[in-house]
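Chapter review: from sequence to fold.
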Amino acid sequence: MKFSLKLLLWTIIVLAIALGFSGFYFVNYVFETSLEREVSQALDDNSILSFAFETAALNVPAKYDILQDNTIEEIASNLEKGGNSTSRLLRISDEQKNVLYASDGFDADGILLEQTNENTKTYRIIEMAGGYYVQTGVVLNTLDRLLYLETMRDISDVFRERELGFSVYRRVTVAMLVVGTAIMHLISSWLTKPIRLLTKATKRMAAGDYYYRAKQISGDELGQLTKDFNYMANALEENIARLEEEIQDRENFVAAFAHELKTPLTAIIGYADMLRSHKLDEEKSFMSANYIYTEGKRLETMAFRLLDIIVTKRDEGKFQKVSAESIFRYLQDMFQGSGQQLVYQYEQGMVWAETDLIKTVLINLIDNACKASEPEGLVEIGGHRTEKGYEFVIRDYGVGIPGEEQKNVVKAFYMVDKSRARSKNGAGLGLALCAEILRLHNSELGIESELGKGTRVSFMLPDLERGGAYEANEG
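The token string follows.
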């Protein structure tokens, strides 16, 4: 069952119960009030009749010592005729509760008479001859006679009014339920419209339309739910786009890896076949062997760097506190005699890092800067302290990187100038490896470049407190 129908059904059920109980209480309250008023009037009539009977008995000529039965009947008859004969009914009984006089239609039993005594007035409501009456009883002590006076007052109108009230209220309740159902149907449809829009959105997204968004039409909880759903859809769309990009990158990676393997293997196989099948002079034999060696070294370098990338993606760094000066001295020894003009300018300081991995990053960056520069070109290597940590900077004045290519250079096998990179034994893995190593250090490459003017590459090693995110050993 739809939520809107459930809401409508339960609202109507609650409304029907509320109207039923309130109607019953209201009609019954009016009935009880009217009934109490009739009972009070019946008791007042009984008191008036008692007083009138006693007065009439005192005015009877004293022929006898006690009040005679025929006199009692005569007084009772006069009292009955003195009132409204259609509504005043009375009955008088003697000391033995034998009936001396009873109005026509006074057919009540003697139950109330048995309960009546000198100290109390009694009454009850009885149903008789298709009507309802208030029967009252009282004891009269007149001229040495102990008599019982009973009256009956017709209160059928009160019960008929109650039945009429219930009937009218039932009709009103039915009418209100019908009108309420129509109104609540509109209200429930309006309240659940955001849910229907969300349902439509989920179906559209399940069908593959990840760009579809639910329309927010309210500012309540359902409106907030719609807003959160759209946020979730945006995040899902971004994740899907990222996954699609990763899948495309993997496909490009496989294609590039196959191509990078094919090129050196073709050269190795070709020159090896030439050495195997032809008798070459010493110069051609050396050239062929040199090609085989060079391409083999490129394959070896590519294999090791791929392995490093895989390891850094799965491993966690073991950080040490080392001096920046020791790292720069290592780089000076490593690139001594490289043929480039390397200028070192750095500040003293301590850094938190896995030393071997950071050296690998710097070696790759310096190597890329040398390859991008002209022979004996200037490459600046520096470092300085900041508020957040220690920043390394490598600056060359070579060919530069186009702006649209800068975001792709950290992808595996991506090379801006493939012919230039291959001529210098490049495989497009250096910056990809650097990016993975820096990711372990909570850092990333910052690349600023301009065609023909060179490139500036930097990264920040943040300071880590002992006992923080990494296990640190001071070295």
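Two observations follow directly from the output. The chain is about 55% helix and 20% strand. Residues 125 and 151 are 12 Å apart (CA to CA).
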